[in-house]
């Protein structure tokens, strides 16, 4: 009987180990031995890209967010459409707005030259995102690595999982919750809008028709975003310091200068007002919480172990 119990216990332990390896966790220093120059390469290319165009930091950050919210952080967003494959690049939230693919390509080319068929595009995107934020004055953090690249993508997921600029607070909270993120995570990750630009068509209604907006701010935006025409004219998401990763976004919200309806929803008499106020006066708290939330975002349903693949070209499956 005792022997039978021991065999059962052994079988259970073996099964548990197999289950754990099938859902292996991401780890810091995953490529320490297999690709020791990885982080140096990523930092170098991102430094060059941001020197050329500061907006690129925001573009890469947005790519990562849009990737992770659709089937997890698996580089699905990087796949090009082909006659036999439909990717995510032409989904509503990505078409004509997702950008920075050529920067990821440039990093991948150098990484492949240093350590062939070793580092996933998903991990490259995660590292590039961190460096883009940091190079613009934001925090840095250890990026857990070990993601693998998807052999699939989801156009429908990209169309349905990503909150739009007209989203209500309740919609934002529920869409982040669907990814395992809390309302507080949502509020701090929205601080990504301290950098980057947006097209007139996505904030026109707010600057002409909404009441909870600073009048002089609305007038300023109306100068380059008229009631008709100019749909693709850009404006900074953070009116104060659009190329610096800081807490000014929250100061904007407290002053009713959120560019998107969804931005101002975070400070409009609702559940996130207190946290927005805290971040508006405590940049160190925002930076610390943002870094923690980015690690949590990067942990959404990664492919690990033998799942997926290590793409040789980020735009296409092997």
TrEMBL record:
<keyword id="KW-0376">Hydrogen peroxide</keyword>
<keyword id="KW-0479">Metal-binding</keyword>
<feature type="binding site">
    <location>
        <position position="194"/>
    </location>
    <ligand>
        <name>Ca(2+) 2</name>
    </ligand>
</feature>
<feature type="signal peptide">
    <location>
        <begin position="1"/>
        <end position="24"/>
    </location>
</feature>
<feature type="binding site">
    <location>
        <position position="238"/>
    </location>
    <ligand>
        <name>Ca(2+) 2</name>
    </ligand>
</feature>
<feature type="domain" description="Plant heme peroxidase family profile">
    <location>
        <begin position="25"/>
        <end position="318"/>
    </location>
</feature>
<dbReference type="InterPro" id="IPR002016">
    <property type="entry name" value="Haem_peroxidase"/>
</dbReference>
<feature type="binding site">
    <location>
        <position position="74"/>
    </location>
    <ligand>
        <name>Ca(2+) 1</name>
    </ligand>
</feature>
<dbReference type="GO" id="GO:0006979">
    <property type="term" value="P:response to oxidative stress"/>
</dbReference>
<keyword id="KW-0560">Oxidoreductase</keyword>
<keyword id="KW-0964">Secreted</keyword>
<dbReference type="InterPro" id="IPR010255">
    <property type="entry name" value="Haem_peroxidase_sf"/>
</dbReference>
<keyword id="KW-0732">Signal</keyword>
<keyword id="KW-0106">Calcium</keyword>
<keyword id="KW-0349">Heme</keyword>
<dbReference type="InterPro" id="IPR000823">
    <property type="entry name" value="Peroxidase_pln"/>
</dbReference>
<comment type="similarity">
    <text>Belongs to the peroxidase family. Classical plant (class III) peroxidase subfamily.</text>
</comment>
<dbReference type="InterPro" id="IPR019793">
    <property type="entry name" value="Peroxidases_heam-ligand_BS"/>
</dbReference>
<dbReference type="InterPro" id="IPR019794">
    <property type="entry name" value="Peroxidases_AS"/>
</dbReference>
<dbReference type="GO" id="GO:0020037">
    <property type="term" value="F:heme binding"/>
</dbReference>
<feature type="disulfide bond">
    <location>
        <begin position="121"/>
        <end position="314"/>
    </location>
</feature>
<feature type="disulfide bond">
    <location>
        <begin position="35"/>
        <end position="115"/>
    </location>
</feature>
<comment type="similarity">
    <text>Belongs to the peroxidase family. Ascorbate peroxidase subfamily.</text>
</comment>
<feature type="binding site">
    <location>
        <position position="67"/>
    </location>
    <ligand>
        <name>Ca(2+) 1</name>
    </ligand>
</feature>
<dbReference type="Pfam" id="PF00141">
    <property type="entry name" value="peroxidase"/>
</dbReference>
<feature type="binding site">
    <location>
        <position position="246"/>
    </location>
    <ligand>
        <name>Ca(2+) 2</name>
    </ligand>
</feature>
<dbReference type="InterPro" id="IPR033905">
    <property type="entry name" value="Secretory_peroxidase"/>
</dbReference>
<keyword id="KW-0873">Pyrrolidone carboxylic acid</keyword>
<dbReference type="GO" id="GO:0005576">
    <property type="term" value="C:extracellular region"/>
</dbReference>
<dbReference type="GO" id="GO:0042744">
    <property type="term" value="P:hydrogen peroxide catabolic process"/>
</dbReference>
<feature type="binding site">
    <location>
        <position position="70"/>
    </location>
    <ligand>
        <name>Ca(2+) 1</name>
    </ligand>
</feature>
<keyword id="KW-1015">Disulfide bond</keyword>
<keyword id="KW-0575">Peroxidase</keyword>
<feature type="binding site">
    <location>
        <position position="72"/>
    </location>
    <ligand>
        <name>Ca(2+) 1</name>
    </ligand>
</feature>
<keyword id="KW-0408">Iron</keyword>
<comment type="function">
    <text>Removal of H(2)O(2), oxidation of toxic reductants, biosynthesis and degradation of lignin, suberization, auxin catabolism, response to environmental stresses such as wounding, pathogen attack and oxidative stress.</text>
</comment>
<feature type="disulfide bond">
    <location>
        <begin position="200"/>
        <end position="225"/>
    </location>
</feature>
<dbReference type="GO" id="GO:0140825">
    <property type="term" value="F:lactoperoxidase activity"/>
</dbReference>
<feature type="disulfide bond">
    <location>
        <begin position="68"/>
        <end position="73"/>
    </location>
</feature>
<feature type="active site" description="Proton acceptor">
    <location>
        <position position="66"/>
    </location>
</feature>
<feature type="binding site" description="axial binding residue">
    <location>
        <position position="193"/>
    </location>
    <ligand>
        <name>heme b</name>
    </ligand>
</feature>
<keyword id="KW-0325">Glycoprotein</keyword>
